[in-house]
Amino acid sequence: MAAEAGMLELPFVRDDQLTRCMRLRFQSLQQKNVKPQDGEKLLHPNEHVYRVDFIRQHNLRFLRWDMQLETPGKVTVTGTSQHWTPDLTHLMNRQLLEPVGIFWKKPGAKEVECNEADAQEFGERIAELAQIRKVMYFLLSFAEGLEPAQLKGSVVFKA
Predict the structure, then answer these.
(1) Where along the sequence do coiled-coil regions lie (predicted)?
(2) Do 92 and 41 form a contact (C-beta atoms < 8 A)?
(3) How far apart are the C-alpha atoms of 77 and 125, rounded to whole Å?
(4) How many CA atoms lie within 13 A of 39 on its CB side?
(5) Are 67 and 115 in contact (CB under 8 A)?
């Protein structure tokens, strides 16, 4: 945890309402037997919407990810380029940011691993985007048996 002075730890907060809204969009399309819009991102069952609220927006420098997985598994964190309070039900694939953060924990391991270069670049990008946003939305994809309740994650900045 970011207990030291000058550090700001911003947690990933599950947005169940937005997740439900996106799932309803998917169900609606299925019931009407209609195809999604060209390039529309539909939420898969293992994907959930999370948000990070920036209590401070300027002069943030990315330090690290603090991802804790209670059980072995993998989570992929994808940022979105939505600027306003989003209606993510019509999220387009082109609005998904790269790189993504991929975090995993192997059976028997204590530490969570990641692709360091992508995670670093992604974190720096989040710090840049914080300057123009009070909230940022993310799609988290869970795999290999990991569930949302087994994740506690945050982004740590030097403020």
Answers:
(1) none
(2) yes
(3) 13
(4) 6
(5) no
Residue burial 102-139, b: 16+ Cβ < 10 Å; e: rest: bbbbeeeeeebebeeeebbebbeebbebbeebebbbbb
Distance between CA atoms of 62 and 31, rounded to whole angstroms?
A: 44
Residue with tokens 């947005």: 15
DSSP state of 142: E
Distances (CA, A) of 136 to 70, 78, 85: 25, 11, 9
Distance CA 147, CA 11 (A): 17
CATH no., domain 9-158: 2.60.120.390
Q: pLDDT tens per residue, the chain (159 residues)? A: 445 678 999 999 999 999 999 999 889 998 999 999 999 999 999 999 999 999 888 899 999 999 999 999 999 999 998 776 667 788 899 999 999 999 999 999 999 999 999 999 999 999 999 998 899 999 999 999 999 999 999 999 998
Residue given tokens 């439900």 in the structure block? 20
Q: Which two tokens stand for residue 47?
A: 């994907």
Structure tokens given for 78? 């994808």
pLDDT given for residue 157 in this prediction: 96
pTM higher than 0.85 for the full model? yes
